[in-house]
Design goal:
mainly beta; 6-stranded mixed β-sheet; 4 helices; 3 domains; rod-shaped; Immunoglobulin-like
Length: 495
């Protein structure tokens, strides 16, 4: 069969040399096909096919790995939990967001803008290079592919409209631009501010505590009680109240003290509630009305009260205007000199004290008792000066001849009460008879030649006191001089 095939390809006109033909015949014998090999098992062929496919897949994967682009982080969602918030209910905006491939993000930046583009919040930065920051842990969950944050609170209490922007800053090695997303518009509403529309004391004039009102003093103001001055007030919009500040001052502006009343429920700060100190005196409806709130101010003086409402979520806003009351006056208890005695007897305006020449000058005892309040001041002049409301002192007379003792009492506001006593010393025997011993000389008015042993009769001088007394009968303005002849017990001077 092989020979016939060779013959078919031979051209009849070609002349072949015998030597060549012999060589070709030998070659044909040499190139004759060998017996066909036995077929391989099917599993080997399949294994070879699988190995080839695997090699091609590995090569493709290797090429993809070196030529691939790393995944880019994206903001999948940025939205507020609600579109409106009310600061009066202590509500603040809350944001939720979702970010893909958070491990490719180094920093999150959150900003808030007003509708006109003015920056009004932030920027607030969250560092993700070391994982979730501490302030996001309560609100966020992070996996390799996704960061999900729910209702993250924002410290934003100023009323207005806001649009929030979240910016992703990828890792520097990725050389990627920042990724930004904006939220929908958020409105922070504010209720009307609380206002003090009335602040008034229950009385503008009090008497000092302990003052007794009698028929003679019926026109006096009622005394202040242990509760002190009482004030009443009315405040609008109490639902937006955080605190009330009650300050007491002097009319010149000097602050004496103050008190803060918290109007928030400790268990639920979003609700307004009366503190224990105000519950007996106040009620909350559409307005806060308080009547007869005790202040404890009961000392004598002048007072002016100031009430300031403090709204919730004040932040950096100014306090609303305070309201001042009219001036309240606590008048001192009237002072009265209940007793003023000299040597146990009611003091007289003037005393004449006889003093024998060469005899010691007597003293006297003065005693007093004054009724008055806390501001009463008692002075005994010229000395010792300020003394108590009640007492007694022994005092000497002045050798100058005249001594004046003054009791001065004042309540610190009204004109003082004054009682004065004058002591004047005098010589009860101004003209003593002169006795001259008789000697060799003559005695004027005596008889010449009288025996020397007989004493001469004393010469009685003319009594000027009698003349002065007679002169006084004709002149009513003449000084009283008959005290020299009156017994001492009639002078009521038992020193």
């Amino acid at each position: 069969m092989a020979g016939s095939q060779i013959e078919q390809w031979q051209e009849p006109e070609l002349q072949v040399d015998e030597s060549v033909e012999t060589a070709a015949t030998a070659a044909a014998i040499t190139l004759a096909p060998a017996p066909a090999p036995l077929p391989r098992p099917r599993w080997q062929r399949r294994l070879a096919i699988a190995a080839g496919i695997g090699a091609l897949g590995g090569l493709g994967a290797l090429l993809w790995w070196f030529g691939r682009t790393p995944p880019h982080p994206h903001i999948l969602d940025l939205s507020p939990s609600q579109s409106q918030y009310a600061t009066a209910q202590a509500e603040i905006p809350q944001l939720s967001w979702q970010v893909s491939y958070p491990r490719q993000v180094e920093t999150l930046v959150l900003r808030g803008y007003a509708p006109d583009g003015t920056l009004t919040y932030g920027p607030e930065t969250f560092d993700l290079s070391q994982g979730l920051p501490t302030n996001l842990l309560p609100y966020c969950d992070q996996t390799r592919r996704l960061l999900t944050c729910r209702e993250v609170p924002l410290e934003l209490r100023r009323p207005g409209q806001y649009r929030f922007e979240l910016t992703l800053l990828p890792n520097i090695a990725l050389n990627l631009p920042p990724v930004r997303a904006e939220s929908s518009l958020v409105t922070v509403a504010d209720l009307p501010q609380p206002t003090v529309v009335e602040l008034a004391p229950d009385q503008v004039i009090y008497s000092e505590a302990g003052t007794q009102i009698s028929a003679a003093t019926a026109d006096m103001a009622p005394p202040v009680t242990e509760a002190g001055i009482q004030v009443s007030w009315i405040v609008t919009n109490p639902q937006s109240l955080q605190d009330l500040l009650l300050v007491v001052k002097r009319p010149d502006g000097t602050t004496l003290g103050g008190r803060r009343f918290s109007l928030r429920d400790p268990q639920n700060p979003t609700q307004v509630a009366l503190p224990d100190a105000l519950q007996p005196f106040c009620q909350i409806q559409d307005r806060l009305i308080c009547q007869g709130v005790p202040t404890g101010m009961l000392e004598v003086g002048q007072y002016q009260f100031e009430l300031t409402p403090v709204p919730v979520n004040l932040s950096d806003r100014e306090l609303p205007a305070a309201r001042q009351s009219e001036v309240v006056n606590i008048e001192p208890r009237p002072v009265r000199i209940a007793a003023f005695t000299i040597n146990g007897n009611e003091a007289q305006p003037k005393y004449l004290v006889p003093v024998e020449p060469g005899q010691p000058i007597p003293g006297f005892q003065v005693a007093w008792r004054v009724e008055g309040g806390s501001t009463a001041k008692v002075e005994l002049l010229p000395s010792p000066g300020t003394v108590g409301l009640q007492g007694a002192l022994s005092m000497p007379l002045s050798p100058a001849g005249t001594t004046t003792v003054t009791l001065r009492v004042t309540d610190g506001q009204n004109p003082p009460l004054v009682r004065a006593v004058t002591f004047e010393t005098f010589n009860p025997r101004p003209n003593q008879p002169v006795v001259i011993n008789q000697g060799s000389g003559a005695v004027p008015g005596g008889r010449e030649g009288a025996p020397a042993s007989q004493p001469a009769a004393p010469v009685r001088s003319r009594d000027p006191l009698g003349e002065s007394l007679r002169d006084r009968e004709s002149s009513p303005n003449a000084p009283l001089s008959d005290l020299q002849t009156r017994p001492l017990e009639d002078l009521n001077l038992q020193f």
